Amino acid sequence: MSAAALRRRWVPAAVVATAAAALIAMAVPRLVAGILLIPGDPILRRVLERVSVSAAELERLAESRRAALNWHARGRTGTDLGLALLLRAERMRIVVAERDLAPARAAIISALAQAPASPHGWLRLAILEQMATRDAGAVARLVEMSMLTGPAEREILFPRLELALAVWGHGTGPFRDLVRPQLDWAWRADRTATARIARRTGALDVLRTRLATNRPDELPALERVLARLSHEA
User: Fold this and answer.
1) Distance from C-alpha of 104 to C-alpha of 32, rounded to nearest angstrom
2) Which of 186, 203, 104, 112 is nearest to 151 (CA)?
3) In a domain, 20, yes or no
4) Largest Cα–Cα distance in the chain?
5) pLDDT (tens digit, 9 = 90+) per residue, 72-93?
6) Do 33 and 78 lie in a common domain?
7) Residue 131 belongs to a domain
8) Rounded to the nearest 10 degrees, what angle do helices 119-132 and 136-149 cross at?
9) Is residue 37 included in any domain, yes or no?
10) CB neighbours of 31 closer than 8 A, spacing ≥ 6?
């Protein structure tokens, strides 16, 4: 075989080898980040299932997310870090916004900049806004973003609905149009939980009006649930 022919064979091989090396280099950070997430994953599952976790476990969750972000910036990892920091702040007897909430806020905003279509991220930012400023209009706008980016997120249905109803009076027409189907879904999923949220947020009239419009035959069921809840109080 001539030298020219050998060169023609080696050129494609070199190209393939270079491409393979590039792919491996790109994959390594993701792989390492995935491994670093593992210690915090069981804790995150428990948090999302609303199972109590210790302060040490929250710190372990936060550290696993910080370590992974150092290797590979990913939106969901950042919002999980923000969640861990938010939960840690909620446990403090006295919360100083600049000291205790700023790290969680920074983590979530950075994550949303990378992956804005994150209903969990927008909801967590809304919760932080509620804690830090009590600006109901701003909270409503953030909850609206959460609903726009993920209207069918069962995992956050009830906490998002509770925050939405708490700021109902400060929301725009489009905001309320997004909340109403969430209210329907929540009522179908768990009448007692929905009634409890509506009562706790002072939004029973909102729930009654929605049922009267869409499911008038279920208004008596609502009153029965409320009567039962009043006996529990």
Assistant:
1) 23
2) 186
3) no
4) 95
5) 777 778 888 888 888 888 787 6
6) yes
7) no
8) 170
9) yes
10) none
**Those residues with Cβ within 8 angstroms of residue 184's Cβ, 6 or more apart along the chain or in another chain:** 210, 214, 215
Domain that holds residue 217: 136-233
Spacing of C-alpha 141 from chain mean position: 15
Which amino acid, 206?
V
| Token pair 């923000």: residue | 82
Question: Which residue type does 144 have?
Answer: E
What percent of the residues of the chain are helix, what percent strand, and what percent coil, each to the nearest 5? 85, 0, 15
Determine the residue type at 15: V
**CA separation for the pair 131, 91 (Å, rounded):** 12
Phi/psi for 18 (5° steps) reads -65, -45
Instruction: Note the pLDDT tens digit of each residue in 47-75.
Output: 877 788 888 998 898 888 888 877 777 77
- Is there a single domain that holds both residue 149 and residue 233? yes
Go through the chain and tell me how many residues it has: 233
